[in-house]
């Protein structure tokens, strides 16, 4: 999250100005779900370009982890994952786009922090990806943890929270390491590849993408241990609880579906399952969708359109993608990860 | 008393050396010229082979993904450019033929308008400034009544957006600039102050700031349904910006037209409009063609700034495509930037080549 945080800090004065404008000229806003339904399309803010999270493909078709969350919400509402209009947003204008009502939902690898929620009129709907700052090192070095980097030189991009986290970590751990600062991420990566540094550090999710830019990606690995917390979450505006619930429960439905083994392929058939948990999730006996303003088969719609959480992860970030990011903290709670979704009942 | 007058002619000086030198004389005429030529030739000989090897010999022309381009010693990855070409040129626009037709139309009109032997240019002018925007809108945005499905501007991207921005900026800049420049010279103080205000305000703000204001502040102050389209906002910003700069170039041209021309036209009984149209403007604009073209070239490259408001112009499409993990590799970024450089260089060279020809023609007419 380093680079993006840096940009955000720089634009704080502008953000404050924009926020003041929002607060003074508060437009009376209708219910977001009603607006989406009458418009016939969900407007979703995504990253301008981040491998695995949001990136247009050869034909300009948006693909990625965050993008699939937008499609999941669209599928829940319209039973059509294509009824989404994607608005690519830079780190600077992502929050104003949400505050001004230009987008209905921000799904853009945004770190959940206290100040964003308390001071900016935003609500984070729940962590869908646990990221954190990590290190890329040469496999030949056989390092286990960042602590093994004692006395090493580390390439980092200048003026980012990444740089500050790095200093904090080594200060706390009481070990010394040389920090080599570069103005851009690509320069830092080049310096690491040329052997100037023993390690290159930035957010874990970005490291896996950066690794593919190297001449021999397989000679390098990303350490599993992270030194900072970067919990990514979709974001909505405050003041619309129905919409907040809808997005939040779409996320939980994806996780519950994975936990219960409901996939895009078997979602329809499993409605006849005799497992009561699955029957509840898929709306076989009771209607749990109505309370959210959705149909009875809302989970079936979601999972048939984009798959469950595991399928989304694998397709965009994991084994099914070139990035090959391990599940790690993003595994289900039963598998040693942190994802633990409340049940649909 | 004739002391001050010369009684006989001075001896004649030898004639100056001929202006017409052969290429050999120009390149190797004296020691200094020969040294400069030789050192540059040696530099080129050292540099060229590796450039050619990178661009052509070692280049990867066909590959299903980035694996071949990643191989050690591989040069430019043209396979990647080929795979991404639809995205570079059309963004996510689903009907390439509609884009092609629009720009073919624009191309025909531009050639007609600029060709030295083109006839009935009035029609071309009307077609370019009135017909093309309408036809372009119908073709690109769509008209369900005509069987063309609507394509939202969020799907537009790549060269399509770059060329629309440049064409709209150029089409708005010349008339807008002339009007602002004339307003600035007007006898009516209110009009003059307004034009000076617009010109100085817009020239005083960086284009990035104008784009940001158009993009972020407009939707904040207008109700969500009123806010102009994401593509239109920077389009307004660019048109305004280009007009203000053009106004100053045109003002320079107007200042270069001698006052006598104006007075002579009035003495002949020409109206003010006719004086402007027939006497003043042709001379004023002809005098500043390098400046005008310079502005167009700068404008064309400035369109890359729309990327900061989240539009996928040509350069930004390349910038984004290189992040694709399927293709990511050491050569991808460089290949993309070489392709972008060739694209912008091609357009800018064409513009300045035409301007040079026009200047020569006008210079010949003045002699």
TrEMBL record, chain A:
Keywords per UniProt: Signal, Transport
Leader peptide range in chain numbering: 1-30
Domain of life per record: Bacteria
Matches recorded under InterPro entries: Bact_solute-bind_prot3, Solute-binding_3/MltF_N
GO biological process annotation, one example: amino acid transport
Residues of the Solute-binding protein family 3/N-terminal domain: 41-270
Parts forming coiled coils: none
UniProt-listed Gene3D superfamilies: Periplasmic binding protein-like II (3.40.190.10)
Family: Belongs to the bacterial solute-binding protein 3 family.
Classification via PANTHER family: AMINO ACID ABC TRANSPORTER PERMEASE, AMINO-ACID ABC TRANSPORTER-BINDING PROTEIN YHDW-RELATED
Protein's name according to its UniProt entry: General L-amino acid transport system substrate-binding protein
Provenance organism: Rhodoblastus acidophilus
TrEMBL record, chain B:
Membrane-topology descriptor: Multi-pass membrane protein
One Pfam family from the record: BPD_transp_1
Protein origin, superkingdom: Bacteria
InterPro entries in alphabetical order: AA_ABC_transptr_permease_3TM (IPR010065), ArtM/GltK/GlnP/TcyL/YhdX-like (IPR043429), MetI-like (IPR000515), MetI-like_sf (IPR035906)
PROSITE patterns: ABC_TM1 (PS50928)
Organism of derivation: Rhodoblastus acidophilus (Rhodopseudomonas acidophila)
GO MF entry, a single one: transmembrane transporter activity
Lineage start: Bacteria, Pseudomonadati, Pseudomonadota, Alphaproteobacteria, Hyphomicrobiales
Domain ABC transmembrane type-1: residue ranges: 159-355
Transmembrane segments: 33-56, 95-115, 122-143, 155-182, 194-222, 234-257, 278-300, 332-354
Family from the record: Belongs to the binding-protein-dependent transport system permease family. HisMQ subfamily.
Protein keywords: Cell membrane, Membrane, Transmembrane, Transmembrane helix, Transport
GO cellular component, one term: ATP-binding cassette (ABC) transporter complex
Name under which the protein is recorded: Amino acid ABC transporter membrane protein 2, PAAT family
CDD domains, alphabetized: TM_PBP2
Subcellular location field: Cell inner membrane; Cell membrane
């Amino acid at each position: 999250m380093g680079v993006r945080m840096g940009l955000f800090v720089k634009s704080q004065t502008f953000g404050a100005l924009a926020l003041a404008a929002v607060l003074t000229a508060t437009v009376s806003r209708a219910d977001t779900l009603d607006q989406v339904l009458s418009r016939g399309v969900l407007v979703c803010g995504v990253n301008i370009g981040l491998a695995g999270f949001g990136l247009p493909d050869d034909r300009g078709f948006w693909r990625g982890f965050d993008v699939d969350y937008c499609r999941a919400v669209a599928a829940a509402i319209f039973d059509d994952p294509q009824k989404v209009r994607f608005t690519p947003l830079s780190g600077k204008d992502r929050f104003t786009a949400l505050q001004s009502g230009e987008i209905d939902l921000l799904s853009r690898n945004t770190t959940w922090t206290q100040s964003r929620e308390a001071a900016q009129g935003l609500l984070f709907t729940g962590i869908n990806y646990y990221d954190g700052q990590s290190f890329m090192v040469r496999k030949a070095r056989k390092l286990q943890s960042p602590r093994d980097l004692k006395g090493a030189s580390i390439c980092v991009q200048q003026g980012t929270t990444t740089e500050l986290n790095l200093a904090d970590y080594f200060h706390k751990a009481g070990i010394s390491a040389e920090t080599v600062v570069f103005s851009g991420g690509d320069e830092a990566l080049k310096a690491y590849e040329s052997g100037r540094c023993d390690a290159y550090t930035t957010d874990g999710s970005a490291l896996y993408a950066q690794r593919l830019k190297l001449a021999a990606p397989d000679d390098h690995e990303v350490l599993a241990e992270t030194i900072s917390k970067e919990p990514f979450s979709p974001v909505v505006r405050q003041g619309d609880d129905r919409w907040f619930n809808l997005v939040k429960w779409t996320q939980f439905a994806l996780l519950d579906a994975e936990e219960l083994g409901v996939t895009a392929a078997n979602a329809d058939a499993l409605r006849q399952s005799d497992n009561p948990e699955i029957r509840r999730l898929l709306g076989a006996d009771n209607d749990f969708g109505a309370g959210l303003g959705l149909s009875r088969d809302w989970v079936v719609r979601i999972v048939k359109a984009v798959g469950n959480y595991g399928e989304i992860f694998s397709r965009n970030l994991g084994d099914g993608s070139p990035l090959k990011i391990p599940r790690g903290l993003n595994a289900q709670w039963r598998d040693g990860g942190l994802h633990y979704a409340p049940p649909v009942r | 008393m004739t002391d001050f007058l010369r009684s006989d002619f001075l001896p004649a000086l030898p004639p100056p050396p001929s202006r017409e030198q052969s290429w050999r004389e120009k390149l190797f005429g004296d020691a200094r010229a020969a040294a400069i030529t030789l050192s540059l030739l040696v530099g080129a000989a050292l540099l060229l082979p590796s450039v050619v090897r990178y661009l052509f010999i070692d280049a990867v022309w066909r590959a299903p993904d980035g694996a071949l381009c990643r191989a050690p010693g591989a040069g430019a990855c043209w396979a990647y450019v080929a795979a991404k070409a639809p995205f570079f040129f059309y963004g996510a626009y689903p009907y390439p033929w509609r884009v092609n037709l629009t720009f073919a139309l624009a191309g025909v009109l531009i050639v007609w308008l600029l060709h030295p032997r083109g006839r009935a240019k009035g029609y071309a002018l009307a077609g370019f400034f009135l017909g093309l925007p309408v036809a372009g809108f119908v073709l690109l945005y769509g008209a369900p009544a005509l069987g063309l499905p609507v394509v939202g501007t969020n799907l537009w991207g790549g060269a399509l957006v770059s060329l629309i921005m440049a064409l709209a900026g150029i089409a708005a800049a010349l008339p807008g600039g002339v009007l602002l420049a004339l307003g600035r010279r007007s006898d009516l103080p209110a009009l003059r102050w307004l034009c000076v205000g617009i010109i100085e305000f817009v020239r005083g703000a960086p284009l990035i700031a104008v784009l940001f204001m158009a993009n972020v502040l407009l939707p904040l102050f207008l109700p969500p349904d009123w806010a102009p389209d994401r593509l239109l906002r920077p389009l307004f910003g660019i048109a305004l910006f280009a007009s203000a700069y053009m106004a100053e170039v045109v003002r320079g041209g107007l200042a270069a037209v001698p006052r006598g021309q104006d007075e002579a036209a009035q003495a002949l009984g020409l109206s003010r409009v006719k004086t402007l149209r027939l006497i003043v403007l042709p001379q004023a604009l002809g005098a500043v063609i390098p400046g005008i073209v310079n502005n167009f070239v700068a404008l064309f490259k400035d369109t890359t700034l729309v990327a900061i408001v989240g539009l996928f112009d040509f350069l930004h499409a390349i910038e984004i495509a290189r992040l694709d993990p399927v293709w990511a590799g050491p050569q991808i970024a460089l290949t993309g930037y070489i392709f972008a450089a060739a694209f912008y260089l091609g357009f800018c060279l064409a513009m300045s080549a035409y301007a040079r020809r026009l200047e020569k023609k006008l210079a010949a007419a003045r002699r």
